[in-house]
């Protein structure tokens, strides 16, 4: 076999392997819901809220995994509490790349969090390392006994099932 054919075959195999690795590293809808629920429970149970909130800096592997992370907001105070890029900033007027409110409004993350068991919302958001907007869905829920909401999301270029958008 010629060297060029061998190199071509190795390239095809590597690209196929590399693509499958990337796909496996995408968070799933179930993982997002489970992590958000676990985060809400952990915050609710924590006696020292500042210590637990420090865990949501976007780097802790307990709350940041694959291609997503759990973040904490206070919709009542209009502030991101723990988020890799928005911490301390107002959130209710934050708009996506198409001008849709992400956190505020009738279909934003804060409204989704008001549902009894949490809820989903959709918006356009740039993937990490990109400036182009992509479909993203996020699951949010209230933290019992606090003014906090927790959320995490997945990009919807993957198959997304079993969630309801806020209507």
Topology, pairings included?
Blueprint: H1 3-24, H2 29-45, H3 49-53, E1 64-65, E2 68-69, E3 71-74, E4 79-82, H4 109-113, E5 119-126, E6 133-142, E7 149-155
Antiparallel strand pairs: 1-2, 3-4, 3-7, 5-6, 6-7
Count of domains: 1
Q: SSE order in H/E notation?
A: HHHEEEEHEEE
Number of strands: 7
Mean pLDDT: 82
Provide the spatial order of strands within the biggest beta sheet: 4-3-7-6-5
- Derived structural class: alpha+beta
> What is the CATH level 1 assignment?
Alpha Beta
CATH superfamily: PAS domain
Helix tally? Answer: 4
Terminal CA distance reads 61 Å
From the spread of the alpha carbons, the general shape counts as: globular
Q: Quickly give the CATH architecture.
A: 2-Layer Sandwich
Taking pLDDT < 50 over at least 5 consecutive residues as the criterion, the unreliable ranges are 1-24
- Percent of residues in helices comes to 25-40%
Strand residue percentage: 15-25%
Please provide a brief summary of the model:
The protein has 167 residues and is of the alpha+beta class. The protein contains four helices and seven strands, in the order αααββββαβββ.
